[in-house]
Design a protein that fits this description.
Elements: E1 3-7, H1 18-26, E2 30-32, H2 52-66, E3 71-76, H3 79-90, E4 94-100, H4 111-116, E5 133-134, H5 144-151, E6 157-158, H6 160-163, E7 178-184, H7 194-206, E8 211-215, H8 221-224, H9 226-238
Helix pairs in contact: 1-9, 2-3
Length: 239
């Protein structure tokens, strides 16, 4: 049986993985879904000083305090930057790294830079009076009930998370663990972030250092295709 650590994306929370978590647990796997500071169930901790480093530490401390070993570490969307940053601290505990329709940053890249197509960015500077919390894009769900449930739990996101660069001392391909990219194929490339997701997906598809899979739905994979995603994650963990 595998140990999964599923890291959610921006404006979301651990609850976004609830369907997938239950399916994997029912199959006998250990599954944890840490919630990042200032969003989701921890929205009460939102603050202008919350940044990517905060979220990296959230995941690192979760893994260390739970003493998790040989994990399948997954980052969804913005969570791709979080799990990448976490490697500097917990790489030896990772057996397989999964990016689910996510950013795959190199050293010095930021979310803002990747969305612009330019990669790196300076550390965040928030001007006096500027809103430090951002609202996210509207996302579509296959099930109206799921859309209503998720919308009620959608939060703002600390702006500084998107401009702080990722620190990564060596390329992802140089780490000893295996890597997988899972692309949601139903969303147009013009959707927010999707151009960067497709760029990462094409790199993974062409590289012998990566495994590559597709799921025919939009960005909200864990809500729209939980059974398919859970089955794929078990396949990845077994391989």
């Amino acid at each position: 049986m595998a140990t999964f650590v599923l890291v959610h994306g921006a404006w979301g929370g651990a609850h976004g993985f609830r369907h997938v978590r239950r399916l994997l647990q029912a199959a006998g796997h250990e599954v944890t879904t840490p919630c990042l500071t200032g969003i989701g169930e921890r929205v009460h901790l939102a603050h202008p000083l919350v940044n990517l480093s905060t979220h990296v530490r959230d995941v690192v401390n979760h893994v260390l305090y739970e003493d998790l070993q040989g994990i399948v570490l997954l980052g969804f969307s913005y969570g791709g930057c979080v799990v990448t940053g976490a490697l500097e601290h917990i790489a030896e505990r990772v057996r397989h790294l999964v990016f689910l329709d996510a950013f795959v940053p190199r050293h010095g890249d930021s979310v803002a830079g990747l969305m612009r197509g330019s990669g790196g960015a300076a550390r965040p500077k928030i001007e006096l009076g500027e809103d430090a919390l951002l609202n996210g894009p509207v996302r579509d769900y296959d099930d109206p009930a799921e859309a209503q449930w998720m919308a009620a739990r959608r939060t703002t996101h600390p702006k500084a998370c998107f401009s702080e660069p990722v620190h990564l001392s060596r390329p992802l391909e140089d780490f000893p663990f295996s890597r997988t990219y899972i692309k949601a194929t139903a969303a147009p490339e013009s959707d927010p972030g999707n151009a960067a997701f497709w760029q990462a997906a094409r790199h993974a598809q062409a590289s012998p250092a990566w495994q590559y899979h597709e799921i025919a739905t939009n960005h909200m994979v864990a809500s729209n295709r939980p059974q398919q995603l859970a089955a794929l994650l078990q396949q990845v963990a077994a391989g």
